[in-house]
Each structure stands twice: as structure tokens, then as C-alpha cells.
Amino acid sequence: MTPSHSSRSQDPASQSQDPGPSSAPRLGAATDAFFAQPGSPPVEWHVLEGVTPYEEALAAMEARVGAIADGRASEAVLLLEHPPLYTAGTGARDGDLLDRRFPVFAAGRGGQYTYHGPGQRVAYVLLDLKRRRQDVRAFVAALEAWIIATLWEFHVAGERREDRVGVWVRRPERPVAPDGATAEDKIAAIGIRVRRWVTFHGISLNVDPDLTHFSGIVPCGIRGHGVTSLADLGILASMPEVDGLLRRNFESVFGMTVDAPSVR
Fold first, then answer.
1. Model-level pTM greater than 0.85?
2. I need a surface site. Which of 24, 66, 140, 253 has the fewest CB within 10 A?
């Protein structure tokens, strides 16, 4: 049995985002700050305990995005972990699902296949771009900058790539690629959707997941590169420690946050 969910909408302002080739260099997008207009309320910061079913998280996001767009709620970030599962973005290719070993969900976000599971910090980022910048490429760049700044707290040098959304880590201790390039692994994925200029879905940062679980897919449709985690790099960090650093660096890029009650 394969549960599925689609968040597609007939609203013309609803769109999935997987920034790809463009006439303008992707890495040219500004990443230093993505603040809201003066006077905007702080972003609510939710941390959900345990593992959250994917359907439950989607329902929470859908409800909150509608409330934000209608002016009935403030922006929010939801931090959580999922049980093992695969999600398929709007660009997912059938051939990239190699082993249906976990439930597969049609996510409605941009991107292709990705894995979520325990030990991976998922952050769903629900921001109103009308209060910030109506520039999706700059928003994605800001998400990457947020992750990179957080990784640097652990002395991990995360990097962006022109042709690959997400954050990458060089692995010079491994054999070089067939083209002679230094081997590198993905440590964080990004997939977003925008509806009525409110963002949802977001990022996933590998803290200490079971990396063998990624073998059932071609992660993000990218062949020739692997995946890594903080634990795989020899860094033993607790989820609360990671959360604290994510919050501090989020505020540096996106602005102030405030504690919020659980969405459960």
C-alpha cells in the first residue's frame, strides 16, 4: 500500500519550486538576509516531539499556509522528524524509485525523490513572501545560506552548487569522480512550494539518519554523488543542539522568532 498526498491547487499563485537552469546564474541570488518588513510579527518556532506522520504534517502546513495568506496567523517554522518514508516532488522520475521499501508520498513540492526518517531534522518553513521579497530564487538561496551557517557551527564547510539545489560537502578522502572532480555528498535537501506567495515544505538536514535508507531512491534525481550526515562526518550532535543552532542562524537570515505551542 502506498499512501499519497497532493497539494496541487488551481490557484494560479500556487506553484512548486525546483529552481533549475535559468538565464541568470542561480548562485547569483542574494543570500545574506531575507527579513520581513518592519513591524511584522516574529516567526513562530514549533518543535514537535517524537515522529510525525507525513499526512499529519501536510495537513498542518496546509491549514497554516491558508491562515497566513488570509492574515489570520503569523509565519511559522515547524521542526520535526518523520518515520521512514520517501516523498516524490513534482519532478520525480519513475526510474529514480529503485526500491519501494518505505511508503511513498506525492508531496506537491518542487524537486524529485527524497528520503525522510528518524535522525533527520526536517524544517517546514511557512513564510509570507509578500512581507519579505517575492523572489523564490532568493528565498531558496537564503535557505541554503541558513543551512551552511548552521553547519559551520560544527566546522563543516557546506557549499552550494549552480546545477544542484541543496547543500553539499566535499569528501577529498574518497576516490575522485570519473571526471576527476573531488567526491562530494549531499548533507541537506531543499524542496518548497509557494501558494498565494506563502512558502511551505522546506529543508531536511541529515543529523544521524540511517544512510542506507537512501538506497531505495536516486536522491533528488542526482546520480554520481552520495549522501552524508553530521554523524557520518564524525560529529555526534543531539537534535536539541542542532535545533538551537538552526534557530540562531535562522534569525540571522530571516529575522526574529518566538516560541510557539505545539501544533498537535
1. yes
2. 24
